[in-house]
Amino acid sequence: MTLENAYTLLYSGALIYLAVLMAVMMVRSIIGPRITDRILAVNMISTMVVASIVILSRFLEEGYLIDVALIYVMISFVSILIMCAVYIRRDRPKKETGKKKKERRKKK
Amino acid sequence: MTIAWIRFALTAVAIVLGLISFTGAVVGNWRFGFIMNRMHAAGIGDTMALFLVTAGIIISSVSGMDILKLIMLVAFLWTTSPVSSHFLSQLEYYTNPRLDDEVERRDRNGSDGNI
Predict the structure, then answer these.
(1) Which of A25, B9, B22, B61 could form an S-S bond across to B49 if both were Cys, CB 3.0 to 4.6 Å?
(2) What pLDDT score was predicted for residue B115?
(3) Residue A55: which of B53, B66, B108 has the nearest Cβ?
(4) Are A77 and B80 in contact (CB under 8 A)?
């Protein structure tokens, strides 16, 4: 076995295995049951995608794919942040004003 | 030739360990029943697994710029992963009506309830 064959075997095996793990996490994100479970599963899938892009950059000998991975990390981070912010803003109890706070303290 | 094979062995060990960590994260995500536990499992995938896979690629890499970018990638993910975990737990805190079944917490309106 030559060195190139060994590297090819390692990288393609790792990519196939990561694809299987991604499929498993996709099922988890469909099952749910809550919104946070789904967001977390999608977060994990994006981490695995980053790992596979990094492996692919070495496999195909294309250095620019690492830049793609960097951008992918940023986009997944922002998407999770925005999704969480939207749901938090919808369900968060509204902040008390100073006047109401004083009244509540007096009651106590 | 021998040095190249040693390099390959180090790469293979790092990547396989990373894949094992990813497997642990996925299994934990399936077996734990509550989101906070699942976040703990997902943290393994976000930090250690990606670091090991990237370390394997760094060992086999030749270009200095690629190595720098990979280190930047890991540093960025290590910075962003706790922030997204924090937001996820905040979302769980505000949206789950049956949170008290799983965790103990202080009064929402108390002085320490402000998160």
Answers:
(1) B22
(2) 47
(3) B53
(4) yes
